[in-house]
Amino acid sequence: MATALDIAKHNTNAAPVAVTESARAAGKDALAAEKLAIEKKADFTVEAARQSSLVGLTRDELKDKLAEIGVPEREQKMRVAQLWHWIYFRGAKNFDEMTNVGKGLRAALAEAYTLARPQVVSEQVSKDGTRKWLIRMPSTGPLDKGAEIECVYIPETDRGTLCVSSQVGCTLTCSFCHTGTQRLVRNLTSAEIVAQLIVARDCIGDWPDATPPEGAFVPSDGGRFVSNIVFMGMGEPLYNTDNVVAAISVLSDSEGLSLSRRRITVSTSGVVPQMERLGTEANTMLAISLHAVRDDLRDVLVPINRKYDIAQLLDACRAYPGLSNARRITFEYVMLKDVNDSDADARELVRLLKGIPAKINLIPFNPWPGSKYECSDWERIERFSEIVFRAGYASPVRTPRGRDILAACGQLKSETEKLRARARMMAEQGIGAEGVYALGDAE
Ligand code: SAH
Ligand code: SF4
């Protein structure tokens, strides 16, 4: 996957998104935005309970699994603690490793469950050390070959950041984002979100007693190989808040994966009604995909703006729980040539953010096959950054990482091409193709 050839093939097969594509062609024209759907329909949600692997489950889910195989209630909490340590602290792949769990229970667990990880279909390593994995989730039924998502590891000398996906594809249709063109969409379960970190740690040898692969670039400061997590892969995390919040509880649990909530950042395109909940229940850092300072332009670039406009979005930012100068909101701003990169835009950005503890991340636009925009010239980005800097913001221009393997922001798109969920459900229930086409996309 993710070879230039594959992606080209994907694009030529893009008949189902033709309407969106033609609207995209009119990219910079606000009027065209009227015809551009704000979002596609999410196809379906998978129940975590269908998975037989214990990897990625929350404490409550593990407890249920133990109850299912007859572990008495009075023992369950202690057993969950043991499983937790083996799965999330040691990275166990086999129940036999769990030496403090009795042989009988180990056998019962192995009979009923696995510690299998989602399958790594491919791994690509960029010249700069960035790694991108295509991960296939277990099948959810006889006609499902398993949803595919991408996950990216970005090592630096003093930290390692894992960029995780929250959905397969994205229901939103931001006009500069590759993921937004993917048609099939479903929410990932919390276990599928957590499993991305497990897979990454397997691949880079980041467990006690494991070693990184020969020549791998990992942080050299003696710290953890994955120290930070950003929800900036595929999908809109706040359209899957329940699972994202549950996943964060597992990722940050101090007896297991133990990531600091201050080092977990959730990026949203601006799902205003969910922002407070994220702050209260997950207590993570927040990033906002702002990208434009005027509603007419943001309506086109980030169409959810037509539901929640810039003023509403910034009000929700001001109200974000725990906001302080030590815990700033990151505003992401993609630099699009002649679209949003003028001096006036930079000045308006500074004016809008006044009073909000903020960081500004300028992101050079990453092109993808078929994209309609160009990245701003370097001098323009510097000039923009200078204006922002003079206003008192450190404005790092985020160096694109892993561009050569299409792993940079907004370049992610998996090849999950299957029967649509509805078609699959109908086929599983014995309803034929006529029924599928009759219902079709009319809804
Ligand atoms: N859906 C969420 C999180 C995933 S996108 C969101 O939109 O915030 C992660 C970041 O990459 C967002 O800021 C997004 O706007 C940005 N992005 C998307 N496509 C891009 C592209 N082609 N070049 C640069 N950044 C892009
Ligand atoms: Fe979805 Fe974010 Fe891409 Fe917009 S930028 S289409 S919200 S992944």
Give a verbal description of the structure.
- The chain is of the alpha/beta class.
- It has two domains: 59-112, DNA polymerase, domain 1 (Orthogonal Bundle), CATH 1.10.150; 117-417, TIM Barrel.
- Helices cover 34% and strands 13% of the residues.
- The protein contains 15 helices and twelve strands.
- It has helices spanning 4-12, 18-25, 30-33, 59-68, 73-89, 103-112, 190-203, 241-251, 272-282, 295-301, 310-318, 343-353, 378-390, 421-428, 433-439, and strands spanning 44-45, 119-125, 131-136, 148-155, 160-163, 167-168, 186-187, 228-231, 264-268, 285-289, 329-335, 358-364.
- A nine-stranded mixed sheet has the order 2-3-4-5-8-9-10-11-12, with helices on one face. The protein has a three-stranded mixed sheet with strand order 1-7-6, with no helix packed on it.
- Strand 9 (264-268), helix 9 and strand 10 form a beta-alpha-beta unit.
- Helix 8 packs parallel to helix 9 (272-282) and helix 9 runs parallel beside helix 11.
- Residues 1-36, 47-51 and 415-443 have low confidence and may be disordered.
- Bound molecules: S-adenosyl-L-homocysteine and iron/sulfur cluster (SF4).
- S-adenosyl-L-homocysteine is lined by residues 170, 176-177, 232, 236, 267-269, 289, 332, 334, 363, 365-366, 409-410.
